[in-house]
Amino acid sequence: MDDDPRVRTWAPVCQAVAALLGPYAEVVLHDPGTDRIMAVWNPMSARGPGDPSLLGELDALDPSAPDVFGPYEKLLADGRRLSSVSAILRDPDGRASVVLCVNLDRTPLEQAAAVLSAFGAPTVSRPEPLFEHDWSERVQHVVGSYVRECGRPVERLTRADRLAVLARLDEAKVFAVRRATPVVAGALRVSRSTLYGLLAELRAPNAKDHAR
Amino acid sequence: MDDDPRVRTWAPVCQAVAALLGPYAEVVLHDPGTDRIMAVWNPMSARGPGDPSLLGELDALDPSAPDVFGPYEKLLADGRRLSSVSAILRDPDGRASVVLCVNLDRTPLEQAAAVLSAFGAPTVSRPEPLFEHDWSERVQHVVGSYVRECGRPVERLTRADRLAVLARLDEAKVFAVRRATPVVAGALRVSRSTLYGLLAELRAPNAKDHAR
DNA sequence: TCCATGGCTGGACTCTATGTCCAATCTGGA
DNA sequence: TCCAGATTGGACATAGAGTCCAGCCATGGA
């Protein structure tokens, strides 16, 4: 079934829709000729390829009907409410090739909507954390916690220690801040040259790692 | 453009997706050959048929690449965050026929999620805010919220508007970040020179404040 | 004690990014 | 149409980032 050329043609679309809508949407390809399911992505019911489509109501052969139906509501056996859309997909000659159905489980949305409407929807807007106001304090803090972790004062840190601290600072994008280098060098009690040396070593994970 | 046979082939799918996702999703068909937009449903930006696709990164001609990308995050000029999925759709011979992109505006979902997460998990404690990982996105966001506040697109902002945005960005210490100036200038659709001009005006509270 | 080694240092140097300035151009309004 | 003010690209000056190196410790082994 998977090697039906029609499935190959339409699969990427189905896969894309399924990926976009995450776990809450089921995508089904029907064969209008045999009225059976050809393929399913994200199945929500037990239906699978080969099962009957039960699409009787939409007549793919009526040329006057529109190609896209819905969204209309369906009800699953367990009570979940679905929004469904169907589309008749045609081959280059205009013949109905397959019928695509997308079924979206509305319950999570309805739950969310219920909660939202319970408030008057004043739409919470965070006041924006924005940027760290005192990034140099932050540097001191990173160095400080490391010092406390290993119990050695800054002056006694080993080369490896400084590399570790630098890794954290670099990770935290500290060096994207202007004039950060001298501050960090100061905090680590190291010269600017050394700082750049360590940094280079840190950022070149190749060569020279015989130490590991 | 509408009578391109490829558009006829794929239009029902696009229309279905657009119908299913209501007003919050944009569906775009790209021509991988000319790298231009062929058709758009539910347009969210000003792009239309014939405009360049700006899809450079996904190479439709690389046969080893997967056919479906995403979902990945995109940022609109006005700051809205999108979930995007792209799929390469092929003709019966396996040649890339068109590229389908579905862009879902996440802001309503995020607002809902924010409210929902406010229940449960009292006071999420982030383990060290550290630095903003993507500060340029932050810039986009500040510009974006302003644009939405005053309802004018970036291109139509007045001089005073730009001053106001700059004040916010300056307040947020954006210019303490390396290489921020060109990014901000770009976001405001203004040249570097102008940027510095506005900035100077902003930071000189003396003289010329007859306006207060 | 002496020497060898490896990391650290200051400083010179290059190059990129920042910020200033200006003449030419654009734009909106009288 | 013309004018005043805003905007622009580009030239320029300078500061900061990053590299390099010769010399200087400190450590540890002979």
From TrEMBL, chains A, B:
InterPro entries named in the record: DauR-like, DauR-like_HTH, YheO
Transcriptional regulator DauR-like HTH domain mapped to chain residues: 139-199
Pfam family, one: PAS_6
Domain YheO-like: 9-113
PANTHER family reported for this sequence: TRANSCRIPTIONAL REGULATOR DAUR
Protein name as catalogued: Transcriptional regulator
Organism of derivation: Herbidospora galbida
